[in-house]
Write a sequence for this structure.
């Protein structure tokens, strides 16, 4: 049994129900809108965040309608944010496939993203739990704030790990945190367990983003983006930040600032990537990622022997071992 199958095993039946609900939520009588929604449905991934919602719910109780609608609300919000992000970043690809804005246009992409956001809030209301509605609303605010914070960091002249993690906590980690927390809330878990679920999700999200940032240093058609893609957008992530602070090399710092200002050539970015790799940036990022993995696993110690716990452990291992 591969890792994905092990992760899904305790919620396989429920996941099939969720997929049907997800498909049904992305429909419209408007032909143009339906065309775009159908394309988005074809691009759906492994449903890692809905799986986390369901696993966490099953760890603390029995899945119910609130669990399904919370998972759907979060997945729709996440998908809407990706559609909008590709417009902001002027991206032509998303995980190896053409982005919505590349096939249609920016105007259509923004409007479809707005439609999905509204649909997300509709399903949040279907949970019948104001706490879950608030959780989804706060997530939407965090994602927007994270994007603005990331744009602000591009204008900074320093290379701060704290600033890097602040962005992650508002973006990727916020999604995983909300997923784990909503699963616990949906089944009426106690406050201490909700807190543990929330922290577990955040730790997974941080590890997930560090892994994504490591991918940026290696060219692979599987990953769906060329080497240095983040840097082509002015983003410096953990491997680079570590090396810049370790070396404090004035010429390298100057190049890093020009990368942030989108003034560096493709060749200069390629040279910068190799320097970061040679100076231990990837090794440092991998160690940091595994530190967060170990902290997440530590939170599962109270539930050892539980089948759901084994799936959650496989989940965090998958996050740090995946190849795309």
């Amino acid at each position: 049994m591969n890792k994905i199958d092990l992760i899904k095993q305790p919620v396989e039946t429920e996941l099939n129900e969720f997929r049907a609900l997800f498909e049904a939520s992305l429909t419209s009588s408007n032909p143009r809108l339906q065309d775009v929604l159908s394309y988005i449905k074809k691009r759906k991934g492994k449903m890692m965040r809905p799986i986390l919602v369901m696993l966490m719910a099953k760890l603390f109780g029995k899945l119910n309608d609130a669990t399904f609608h919370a998972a759907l609300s979060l997945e729709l919000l996440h998908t809407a944010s990706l559609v909008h992000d590709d417009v902001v970043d002027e991206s032509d690809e998303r995980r190896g496939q053409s982005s919505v804005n590349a096939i249609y246009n920016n105007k259509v992409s923004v409007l479809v993203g707005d439609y999905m956001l509204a649909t997300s809030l509709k399903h949040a209301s279907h949970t019948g739990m104001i706490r879950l509605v608030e959780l989804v609303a706060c997530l939407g605010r965090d994602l927007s704030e994270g994007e603005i914070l990331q744009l602000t960091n591009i204008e900074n002249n320093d290379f701060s790990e704290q600033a890097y993690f602040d962005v992650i906590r508002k973006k990727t980690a916020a999604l995983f945190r909300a997923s784990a927390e909503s699963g616990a809330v949906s089944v009426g878990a106690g406050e201490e367990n909700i807190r543990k679920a929330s922290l577990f999700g955040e730790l997974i999200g941080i590890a997930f983003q560090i892994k994504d940032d490591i991918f940026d240093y290696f060219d692979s058609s599987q990953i769906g983006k060329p080497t240095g893609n983040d840097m082509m957008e002015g983003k410096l992530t953990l491997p680079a930040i570590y090396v810049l602070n370790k070396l404090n090399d004035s010429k390298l710092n100057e190049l890093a600032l020009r990368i942030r200002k989108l003034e560096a050539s493709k060749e200069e970015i390629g040279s910068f990537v190799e320097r970061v790799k040679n100076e231990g940036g990837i090794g440092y990022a991998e160690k940091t990622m595994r530190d967060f993995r170990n902290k997440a696993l530590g939170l599962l110690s109270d539930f050892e022997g539980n089948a759901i716990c084994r799936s959650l452990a496989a989940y965090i291992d998958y996050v740090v071992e995946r190849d795309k």
